[in-house]
Amino acid sequence: KNRGEEDSGEYFEGLESEKERKTAREKLLNEIQITFYSIQKNVFEMGGMIRQFILDDKGPVCIAVFGLKSHEDDAKRSILSSTQIHRALKLKKIAHSIGITTGRAYCGSVGTHNRREFGVVGDMVNLSARLMCASKKFHEPILVDFETWSGTRDEILFRELEPIMVKGKSMPINIYRPLKELKKGQIMKLNIPVIGRKHEILQIHNILEDFVGIERETPKLSHNSPPSLSKDQATLVEESNLGRILLIEGEKGIGKTNLIHQLKEIAKSLGKELEDIGEREPIVIFDGISSSLEQKTPFYTFRTVLHKILMKFYPSILKIIEKNLPELNEPTPSDVLKDEKNKGKDMVQDREFVKEVEERLNQLSGNVEGKKNRNSMMDEYQLDESFLLDELIQVFVDLLRRISSSKRIVIILEDVHWMDKTSWALTEQIARQVSSLVVMSTRPFIEVEQLKKMRRGGGFETLFLNRMSKDDLLLLLSKSFGISDFEDGIVSIVWRRSEGNPYFASELFKSMMESKLIEIESNYKFCRISKREAIEEHDLPSTLEAAITSRIDNLPLHLLEALKAASVVGSNFTAKTLSAILPNARERLDELVSY
Questions:
Q1: What CA–CA distance (Å, rounded) separates 59 from 2?
Q2: Where are the alpha helices (H) located in 277-338, listed in sequence order?
Q3: Mean pLDDT score across all residues of the chain
Q4: What pLDDT score was predicted for residue 441?
């Protein structure tokens, strides 16, 4: 159990024989082992590592580190991991306390050539220990510092506590208690207006108008015909796309989500035009989002999409899936609950189809239970189980095909660079077999086999978002922060350091305001520099630094070596200089520039 040394004797009190004491010790050791293993497993699954597990004057202490293999959301990962560990320990009635800090630390070998170990050393390491101790005093299971809060406040709900004094600090430090993760739709991000995207919005408008106005030659399924494609039909569509695909590509913070919001508004506007001429709800929009933490979770990206579709059109089929596939059972989306009309009933004309789909799902469930006596179909779902996977995907595709015979379906999938393999397989088949528009957003350089096939299948368009010009950035900052004019040099500094990325620029500008490097005169809404000597050396906010570090850590090894060698030379260097210390330096630099 997680006890300090001072009460370790209480555990054995009242045990009479040595055998009983030995049994108790073994039981205690086993409990410690099981507890530590569960902590270790959780941390590893979240992308962290265990630095150390020790017993000191504070009791058993586990030190976990996130960021050795960089992810841009390491701070968020550490909070989610700690929250899950807290819940598990609470269920076991094990007293515990957790402190989380974010910052720079030395990570590497500590010791001599005779004895050494991997160490993590720095002020933020000491501070996390202080917060761990403080959490006991405040009776809060988890405490985080300002940097951790700052980097995750858009995605985690916190309660701010009174600042505290800790050993080693001359001033009180701000502390926060994480409460819960904010789901999509709850996240309150900085409102960044759409600026400098007229060409992209026009292109989206044309794509949507073309999609809405196309008369598809796909025959509607009769009530007595099987919903699935025959083998010959499947062969015909294997090489071509029946649906349309739009890929919105750009780096983090470049404005993909804002552009998708514009796409939704345009689609709704076109839908109203069609309703005015007599069509009933002609366009239906369903959206899902991928997660860096759920890349191995089957159908994760499509879970909300499928839940909304089935709840709206086929609630009886939803009940079958919830029974046989509990892992796919998502909480009812809030926007579905708000709209009573979305609590649909099975279409009267689809009774035969619904009955057939239910039989197929029940048969699939029976196949799995008979094969391995599993309680859920998803226990069996691995990519090598091609029959079961293909059958389930085909069921989902047939449902969408049925709906597309009377509706124009728009499916929006965000952050597909994190999409799980099963969702990729389903997306490919939707593109092949369903008359729909699939919109995906991704970061650059994604290489997935299904995406390559969809590109070759026709009806595929890519919209690449470039960085903002300096003039567009000036307009962005003016609208976002209500500023009429800027002192010379401010916009140039923000544009250069953010490299024209609107999200990075807004975060950097906000950080400069919080650090009092710039001031806004309220009367005239004029922004001026207050600390000119410090503005150029201002540290990047943690959100930007994490994103940049993640990009560097995920470079191919040969490019990472080139970047390391260049950093030793200095911030300014020539290809000739780098070539003197690194083979093929010019080729590597050309490839780095393309990144």
A1: 7
A2: 303-313, 315-324, 334-338
A3: 79
A4: 94
Quote the CA–CA distance of 590 and 317 in Å, as a whole number.
Answer: 54
d(CA 433, CA 431) in angstroms, rounded, equals 6
Residue 524, pLDDT > 90, answer no
State residue 380's pLDDT score: 40
- DSSP 8-state symbol, 115: S
- Give the Å distances, CA to CA, from 275 to 220, 281, 391: 21, 7, 36
447: CB partners within 8 A, 6+ apart = none
Q: Which tens digit of pLDDT belongs to each residue from 419-437?
A: 999 999 999 999 989 999 9
Does this model's pTM top 0.85? My answer is no
* E-assigned strand segments in 169-299: 176-181, 244-249, 283-289
Local structure of 56: helix, strand or coil: strand
| Amino acid (one-letter) located at 506 | S
What is residue 173's DSSP assignment? Answer: B
Tell me which residue of 314, 307, 322 sits closest to 357, measured CA to CA.
Answer: 314
Residues 514, 516, 522, 528: what is their CA dihedral angle, to the nearest 10 degrees? -130
Report the candidate in 217, 204, 210, 230 with the shortest Cα–Cα distance to residue 441. Answer: 204
- How many other β-carbons are positioned within 10 Å of the β-carbon of residue 19? 9
- 505 Cβ contact partners less than 8 Å away, ≥ 6 residues apart: 468, 473, 476, 477, 494, 495, 498
Tell me how far apart the alpha carbons of residues 133 and 138 are, in angstroms, rounded to a whole number. 9
How many other C-beta atoms lie within 10 A of the C-beta of residue 492?
A: 13
Q: What SS3 class is residue 140?
A: coil
H-helix segments, 289-420 = 303-313, 315-324, 334-338, 351-372, 386-404
DSSP state for residue 218 in the 8-state scheme: P
Concatenate the DSSP letters of all residues of 423-447 into one string.
Answer: HHHHHHHHHHHS-EEEEEEE-S---
Banded pLDDT at 415 (limits 50, 70, 90): very high
User: Looking up tokens 């030190």, which residue turns up?
Assistant: 63
What is the mean predicted confidence (pLDDT) over 124-153? Answer: 90
- State how beta strands 106-111 and 116-121 pair: antiparallel
- DSSP letter at 144? E
Q: How far apart are CA 144 and CA 148, in angstroms?
A: 6
Show Cβ contacts of residue 63 under 8 Å, excluding neighbours closer than 6 positions: 50, 51, 52, 53, 54, 120, 125
Close Cβ partners of 552 (under 8 Å, ≥ 6 residues apart): 70, 560, 563
pLDDT band at 410 (very low <50, low <70, confident <90, very high): very high
Nearest CA to 499 out of 541, 471, 470, 523 is that of 470
Residues in the chain: 595
Model confidence at 214: pLDDT above 50: no
